[in-house]
């Protein structure tokens, strides 16, 4: 069996983080599993609460940071500690409903050339989330933002971007693995240096996927599933939307605006 580790980067919302941690511990029996919870300087005291919480499991390590260093750098904070074969990057709004981490890691390692995978994610009410994506382009990201309010070409482009014109009920290669739930070969993650620290938040998962694709293939593994609350904020918060635009600009300067191959 593969040796596994996982990391959650928290920012406020103590109860949600605890629910994620407890579900992961409950459905992950591996005795040598290591779960890291990094608090990004939460102003609501979440980090202190987490550090004082007894999860009743020595496999958990809580690392409160003095300030918010961003999503990617928060995950990078545990990179030197990892001694696993496969590492999971998980959002604090993820809930496991079955034992999938170790089986998914074993599956990833069994696929020749595979370096990263994501499972099928569901909303809490059971609806499917369309998170496997093609490589971003400016047009596809614009369509992604406008599709919920528009139809016609925006909706058609978003369906293409989220690969709804493909059979996603079977394992298949993808070009953009969501940062909500990533399984990455630990040796690959260390080789590429984890997330690019230049991103504070948004699009860093697309960037990481492109880095991983230089080392191996990236997969949707729909035979595994989990619940993801998915708090989409950019269109509701002007500051976060501006941050997303800055990250998108950084991504396209680095990787170009061309189409992918899937």
From TrEMBL:
Keyword Signal: no
Pfam family, one: Glycos_transf_2
A molecular function (GO) term: glycosyltransferase activity
Key word Translocase present: no
Positions of the Glycosyltransferase 2-like domain: 5-192
Keyword line: Glycosyltransferase, Transferase
Gene3D superfamilies, sorted: Spore Coat Polysaccharide Biosynthesis Protein SpsA, Chain A
SUPFAM superfamilies, per database record: Nucleotide-diphospho-sugar transferases
Enzyme class: transferase
EC number annotated for this UniProt entry: 2.4.-.-
PANTHER family with a match to the protein in the record: GLYCOSYL TRANSFERASE, RHAMNOSYLTRANSFERASE WBBL
Stretch forming the signal peptide: none
InterPro entries: Glyco_trans_2-like (IPR001173), Nucleotide-diphossugar_trans (IPR029044)
Name the UniProt record assigns to this protein: Glycosyltransferase, group 2 family protein
């Amino acid at each position: 069996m593969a040796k596994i580790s996982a990391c959650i980067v928290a920012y406020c919302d103590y109860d949600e983080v605890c629910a994620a941690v407890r579900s992961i511990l409950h459905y992950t029996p591996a005795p040598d599993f290591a779960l890291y919870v990094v608090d990004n300087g939460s102003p609501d005291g979440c980090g202190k609460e987490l550090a004082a919480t007894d999860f009743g499991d020595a496999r958990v390590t809580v690392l409160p940071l003095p300030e918010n260093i961003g999503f990617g750098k928060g995950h990078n904070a545990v990179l030197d500690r990892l001694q696993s074969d496969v590492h999971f990057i998980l959002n604090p709004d993820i809930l496991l409903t079955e034992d999938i981490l170790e089986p998914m890691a074993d599956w990833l390692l069994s696929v020749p050339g595979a370096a990263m995978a994501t499972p099928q994610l569901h909303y809490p009410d059971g609806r499917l989330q369309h998170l496997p994506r093609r490589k971003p382009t400016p047009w596809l990201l614009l369509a992604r933002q406008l599709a919920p309010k528009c139809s016609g070409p925006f909706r058609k482009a978003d369906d293409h971007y989220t690969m709804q014109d493909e059979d996603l009920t079977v394992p298949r290669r993808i070009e953009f693995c969501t940062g909500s739930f990533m399984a990455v070969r630990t040796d690959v993650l260390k080789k590429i240096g984890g997330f690019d620290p230049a991103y504070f938040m948004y699009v860093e998962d697309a960037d990481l996927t492109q880095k991983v694709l230089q080392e191996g293939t990236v997969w949707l593994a729909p035979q595994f599933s989990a619940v993801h609350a998915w708090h989409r904020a950019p269109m509701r918060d002007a500051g976060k939307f501006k941050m997303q635009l800055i990250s998108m600009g950084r991504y396209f300067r680095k990787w170009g605006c061309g189409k992918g191959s899937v």
